[in-house]
Write a structure and sequence with these properties.
43% helix; 0% strand; mainly alpha; single chain
């Protein structure tokens, strides 16, 4: 029996990670470029992501402002 705490896979490609997160590969790459590969070095061509990486990327995706959403002012 497989443990519920273990991910199905150990490593995910960019395409698999984007699918797991419900976003496009372009959005995933944009988040990676903004938060990780922002020191001038390029993103590796064969990037492998772990389950913990997906958790962090989903957090970054939720905390970024969305141009399509009008936020209510604080009172």
């Amino acid at each position: 029996m497989q443990s519920l705490n273990r991910p199905l896979k150990e490593n995910y490609s960019e395409e698999e990670a984007a699918q797991m997160l419900g976003m496009s590969v372009a959005r995933l790459q944009k988040l990676l470029d903004q938060h990780i590969f922002n020191d001038g070095s390029g993103r590796p061509s064969a990037l492998q992501l772990r389950q913990s990486d997906l958790v962090l990327i989903s957090f970054w995706d939720r905390t970024e402002p969305n141009a399509k959403v009008v936020r209510m002012p604080r009172r």
